[in-house]
Amino acid sequence: MFSWQCMVGLLDVSVPPDFTDETSGDVLVPEGGTVKLTCRARGHPEPHVQWRREDGLDIVIREPTNTKLRVSSYEGEVLQLWKISRTEMGAYMCIATNGVPPTVSKRIMVNVHFHPVIHVPNQLVGAPLGTDVTLECYVEAFPKSINYWVRDTEEMVISSNKYDVQTVSKSAFEVKMSVIVRNLQKEDVGSYRCIAKNSLGEVESNIRLYEIPGPTRAYNGLSPDEEDYNDQLGSAERDQEEEFSNNILERSRSFAPSSSEAPRKGTHSSIRSNHVADGDTSAARSPTNSVREFVIAWIALTFIGCSMAI
């Protein structure tokens, strides 16, 4: 007789992880609301699901009891975010692994929408005339807002020779608005409004630009070229006065009587003494006064010389 042996084998097939259709897609949630993210994965062995933020920031877990916990990763197929804020906006990564390569991941974008908010670092800005001054506003909004500047005259401020208008993105929901006012003049001072609007609302904030005193050169009605010319002319005149004074002094010495001669009776000298006592600086005279005195002395000596000659 034939004998039969029966053997039973177990075939274990490993299947890499894969996501099912139940996995969430990108979501849009109002600020302060609650969002539920689901990540269903299949495979063999049973996949392990983990959540992380793409930007590397912590995930904020809030409980209905208002307790808050920050974690770098979260384990589980369902991630629920309570009372979400704008800072939690961004991409969340669902990662599934079961030891069978490859590991799979899905990127889910969470957008938090809210009406615009404006932060102004300085609402009063002062600058001297003739300088460049920068006005700044920081806007937070999602969806992204339309941003622009308006003066108190209701004139829209746009880039030109006078203004340099810039908008720089700081994050997914924050931008920096700035306007540089070149060569500040009196007509530029006043109120400047930064305005932001999106589908959820509109907001504006005022910045007051005013003039402050600055280091300025005294204005005498002359151009710089004219001032330089006058400075040179004044220097030449001073040189001529000095030369004239020296000539007067020499001629006065030639006409002056010797020390042995005494002035005639009835003749009075009008020469004023230029002697300055030691330590007495109050007797010092300006060059203009000295020239005047030399002229008077020369006339007096000439008169004395003529009288003696007679």
Automatic annotation (TrEMBL):
<dbReference type="InterPro" id="IPR013783">
    <property type="entry name" value="Ig-like_fold"/>
</dbReference>
<feature type="compositionally biased region" description="Polar residues">
    <location>
        <begin position="245"/>
        <end position="261"/>
    </location>
</feature>
<dbReference type="InterPro" id="IPR003598">
    <property type="entry name" value="Ig_sub2"/>
</dbReference>
<dbReference type="InterPro" id="IPR051170">
    <property type="entry name" value="Neural/epithelial_adhesion"/>
</dbReference>
<keyword id="KW-0393">Immunoglobulin domain</keyword>
<feature type="region of interest" description="Disordered">
    <location>
        <begin position="218"/>
        <end position="286"/>
    </location>
</feature>
<protein>
    <recommendedName>
        <fullName>Ig-like domain-containing protein</fullName>
    </recommendedName>
</protein>
<keyword id="KW-0732">Signal</keyword>
<dbReference type="InterPro" id="IPR003599">
    <property type="entry name" value="Ig_sub"/>
</dbReference>
<dbReference type="GO" id="GO:0043005">
    <property type="term" value="C:neuron projection"/>
</dbReference>
<dbReference type="InterPro" id="IPR036179">
    <property type="entry name" value="Ig-like_dom_sf"/>
</dbReference>
<keyword id="KW-1003">Cell membrane</keyword>
<feature type="domain" description="Ig-like">
    <location>
        <begin position="17"/>
        <end position="105"/>
    </location>
</feature>
<keyword id="KW-0472">Membrane</keyword>
<dbReference type="InterPro" id="IPR013098">
    <property type="entry name" value="Ig_I-set"/>
</dbReference>
<keyword id="KW-0677">Repeat</keyword>
<dbReference type="InterPro" id="IPR007110">
    <property type="entry name" value="Ig-like_dom"/>
</dbReference>
<keyword id="KW-1015">Disulfide bond</keyword>
<dbReference type="GO" id="GO:0005886">
    <property type="term" value="C:plasma membrane"/>
</dbReference>
<dbReference type="Pfam" id="PF13927">
    <property type="entry name" value="Ig_3"/>
</dbReference>
<feature type="domain" description="Ig-like">
    <location>
        <begin position="116"/>
        <end position="210"/>
    </location>
</feature>
<dbReference type="Pfam" id="PF07679">
    <property type="entry name" value="I-set"/>
</dbReference>
<keyword id="KW-0325">Glycoprotein</keyword>
